[in-house]
């Protein structure tokens, strides 16, 4: 079994007339939390969307669990065990929290058919999901919506969880709660790929890191090594962690 669950090799992505990714090489080690960092416009979100098949790679390979998924449709990629939480969270505002969760639990026709032990585990990670179970999702705060978005992604077992900027716009207390939840997810064996701008979030959670600039990965290594090298941080990100 490969130690890398997800691998991108020479991936290019065009969106209309625009060439966004210029040969991305990225590895996501099995059982680890990989941070994908970079300035705005570096290609991070495009990379995530290309992995999910929402935008099609025009060149290169995307290998998941040994299978090339670069040309697979998004539903098939999800069926293989890849969960994606986009930056906008994708919450169905007019549905209740319960109904949002039921939609994500594709193997269940009713809430009673959702694995109860798994639900209790999710409630332990995100108590607000249980507290607002019967409330319209559109009435939740930003932090509560983010918790719901992650909860939907893990309501069924997944091999890898891909999340785009989970801490964006959240209060510090909610960010700490989110960090604890992702740490618990990692301990449960879920492989995680996170795009994040909150540097404290990245330092506390990341095992490995890849830094993007202008549509390519310009640095890859351990998160700890990057966090301890201020000169490298400045050269890659224009700031110190």
From TrEMBL:
Keywords: Amino-acid transport, ATP-binding, Cell membrane, Membrane, Nucleotide-binding, Transport. GO terms for molecular function: ATP binding; ATP hydrolysis activity; branched-chain amino acid transmembrane transporter activity. The keyword Membrane applies. Residues 6-239 form the ABC transporter domain. Signal peptide: none annotated. CDD domains: ABC_TM1139_LivF_branched. SMART domains: AAA (SM00382). GO terms for biological process: L-amino acid transport. Gene3D superfamilies: P-loop containing nucleotide triphosphate hydrolases. InterPro entries: AAA+_ATPase, ABC_transporter-like_ATP-bd, ABC_transporter-like_CS, BCAA_Transport_ATP-bd_LivF, P-loop_NTPase. Belongs to the ABC transporter superfamily. PANTHER family: ABC TRANSPORTER ATP-BINDING PROTEIN (PTHR43820:SF2), HIGH-AFFINITY BRANCHED-CHAIN AMINO ACID TRANSPORT ATP-BINDING PROTEIN LIVF (PTHR43820). This is ABC transporter ATP-binding protein.
């Amino acid at each position: 079994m490969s130690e890398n669950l997800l691998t991108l090799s020479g991936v290019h992505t065009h969106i209309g007339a625009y060439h966004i990714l210029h040969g991305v090489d990225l590895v996501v080690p099995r059982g680890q939390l990989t941070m994908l960092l970079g300035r705005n416009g570096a290609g991070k979100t495009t990379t995530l969307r290309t992995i999910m098949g929402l935008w099609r790679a025009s060149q290169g390979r995307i290998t998941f669990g040994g299978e090339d998924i670069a040309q697979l449709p998004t539903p098939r990629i999800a069926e293989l065990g890849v969960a994606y939480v986009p930056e906008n969270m994708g919450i169905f505002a007019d549905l209740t929290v319960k109904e949002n969760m039921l939609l994500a639990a594709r193997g269940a026709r009713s809430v009673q058919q959702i694995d109860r032990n798994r639900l209790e585990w999710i409630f332990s990670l995100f108590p607000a999901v249980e507290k607002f179970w019967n409330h319209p999702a559109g009435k939740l705060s930003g932090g509560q919506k983010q918790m719901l978005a992650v909860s939907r992604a893990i309501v069924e077992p997944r091999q890898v969880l891909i999340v785009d900027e989970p801490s964006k716009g959240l209060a510090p207390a909610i960010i700490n709660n989110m960090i604890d939840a992702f740490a618990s997810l990692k301990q449960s064996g879920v492989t995680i790929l996170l795009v994040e701008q909150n540097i404290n979030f990245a330092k506390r959670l990341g095992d490995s890191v890849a830094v993007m600039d202008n549509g390519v990965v310009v640095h890859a290594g351990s998160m700890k090594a990057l966090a301890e090298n201020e000169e490298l941080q400045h050269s890659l990100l224009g700031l110190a962690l």
